[in-house]
Design goal:
By secondary structure, the protein is an alpha+beta fold. The chain has 19 helices and 19 strands.
Length: 532
């Protein structure tokens, strides 16, 4: 454990004039729930006709160095992207990356959110992730006014923020860290001391709810494993959680309405205990959402907003999802999937469970698992599952168990409990490395800089040293025969270690290097990094 240092005589109220995000830049990750693919999908699900993401105008407030918006600009070269952040250092870092990638459809601007007005024009999609709770009330209100005044008529905005009641308890840990670190002016020292005091309290093995609180928060911090998160979440001057209903009051006063939560499954009462469903089903949607927060102790929300005059469809039916593509995470577990009878099978994804006895649904799940993590259209999935079910069960072509409605109902249940991924326009990637495999130039630059790699599903990926070394050469101009010497050079320089039966090889034979290459390319493909 880090020693608990002695505090200086600096008063707690004194702050540096330097922007804290210049001193400790926020981690620069992509967030899949903010991707305009996802925003468009959710809007369509609820009956909107949102702007075409292939020719959209997108604004991100609090863009940091562009880690969330630059990959989207690469995805959609005919769309225009603008990122805004107060930190000059992060904007400069992002601009250098944009210049290196020779992108001409994105710009980053150092500015205060309060500077944004109607003269900036309309945007089809507005992103504000990790900003609202970390700015004063004046900026919070202006941020939501921008989400209204600068949003296109059928546009979508997403705003994330810390919420009560979950942050009531988390605030105790923040207060502890703030108090302990008040006399440490250096940000890195404050981070070390924040960890030290929490680790010290956990080491005391305190009983009761306080001991559990400290253990849970320390476990969460270790799982995230990012000092910039700890600093800006717990040590910043500003961190102002609100209740969901309070957030919506501000949003509604700006002329906005609640579209959805970025995680569809969290909205549905059917995922709550029976008594909760029975009691709250008669309440208006916003009240349902607030009560669910109280029940679940939720501490963070990702809210999609649209203009108050947009008509929304709240009663989602199986027919509403047949225009989407579907995928299954490779980590999902299938149990007892016998297609030929009506036995109940289970599909698990973390804590989420889908149970079905429908042969057509079971056949679709098995096929989605086989092609995971690839997306497939509803029509293609239906045709494949129907053919397999018909073959296994010998049903006539007009058997009710083979109807399209059976599958669409099963899929709707699956996305409602968070089992299936769904998207209107899914990303495309290469499943297997070809003769001359390639990744995006952005990925090669990220590997060179030692950053997490942004995959084609807009998620950060951490790879081992061997993968990262190989990624640097995957430009589509190096075939497999030229990649093996690259691995050999890295081995000779001691940059990577080749093992056989868990023992390092100083001079690995060509066949060992070829096997390593195949294995490494397979890992890169599985990470969804390969492109045509």
């Amino acid at each position: 454990m880090e020693d608990l240092g002695k505090r200086s005589t600096t008063e707690a109220g004194e702050t540096s004039a330097t922007n804290s995000y210049d001193e400790i830049p926020y981690h620069d990750f992509p967030y899949s729930f903010t991707h305009i693919r996802h925003l468009e999908t959710m809007a369509v699900l609820f009956g909107m006709s949102p702007p075409d993401i292939r020719e959209a105008r997108v604004l991100e407030m609090g863009c940091a160095a562009g880690g969330n918006i630059i990959p989207q600009a690469i995805d959609f070269p005919n769309s225009r992207f603008l990122g805004v952040d107060l930190s000059q250092r992060q904007i400069e870092d992002g601009c250098r990356l944009i210049e290196s990638l020779n992108l001409n459809n994105i710009s980053l601007r150092q500015a205060n959110i309060l500077d944004i007005d109607e003269s900036w024009g309309k945007f089809d999609y507005i992103i504000a992730h990790g900003v609202f709770s970390w700015v004063p009330a004046e900026v919070q209100q202006h941020l939501l006014r921008v989400c209204s005044a600068n949003l296109a008529p059928n546009g979508v905005a997403i705003v994330s923020y810390n919420i009560y009641p979950g942050w009531r308890m988390a605030s105790v840990v923040r207060d502890l860290m703030q108090y302990h670190c008040a006399g440490f002016p250096d940000p890195r020292q404050r981070i070390a001391q924040a960890k030290a005091i929490l680790e010290f309290l956990v080491s005391l093995d305190i009983g009761g709810p306080m001991g559990q609180l400290y253990r849970n928060e320390l476990a969460a911090i270790k799982q995230i494993n990012n000092d910039t998160y700890l600093f800006h979440e717990h040590l910043e001057d500003q961190n102002n959680p609100v209740y969901f209903h309070q957030f919506m009051q501000i949003a509604q006063s700006a002329g906005l309405q609640y579209l959805a939560d970025a995680e569809f499954s969290t909205m549905l009462l059917q995922n709550a205990p029976p008594k909760v469903r029975e009691t709250f089903s008669r309440l208006p949607l916003l009240q349902q959402e607030q009560y669910l927060d109280f029940i679940r102790g939720r501490r963070f929300r990702k809210t999609l907003l649209c203009h108050e005059n947009v008509a929304l469809k709240r009663d989602i039916t199986p027919n509403d999802i047949i225009g989407f593509h579907f995928a299954l995470d490779g980590a999902c577990e299938l149990a007892d999937f016998v297609i030929r009878d009506e036995s109940t099978a289970e599909l698990r994804r973390g804590a989420s469970v889908l149970r079905s006895s429908q042969q057509l649904v079971k056949a679709a799940c098995v096929y989605l698992k086989e092609i995971s993590p690839r997306y497939i259209s509803f029509r293609d999935l239906y045709l494949t599952a129907r053919a397999r079910t018909q073959a296994a069960c010998r049903f006539p072509a007009d058997h009710p168990a083979l109807s399209q409605e059976v599958l669409s109902s099963g899929l709707l249940t699956g996305i409602s409990v968070g089992i299936f991924d769904f998207c209107l326009r899914p990303a495309q990637w290469v499943d297997r490395a070809g003769r001359a495999p390639a990744v995006r130039p952005l990925v090669r630059l990220q590997a060179e800089m030692g950053k997490a790699l942004t995959n084609l599903c807009h998620r950060p990926v951490q790879l081992n040293d061997i993968c990262r070394k190989l990624v640097l050469r995957l430009d589509g101009r190096h075939d497999r025969s030229s990649l093996i010497p690259c691995l050999k050079e890295a081995v000779d320089r001691g940059e990577i270690v080749v093992k056989q039966r868990d023992k390092p090889l100083k001079n690995p034979p060509p066949e060992a290097l070829a096997e390593l290459l195949d294995q490494t390319l397979g890992e890169i493909a599985q990470a969804r990094l390969l492109v045509q």
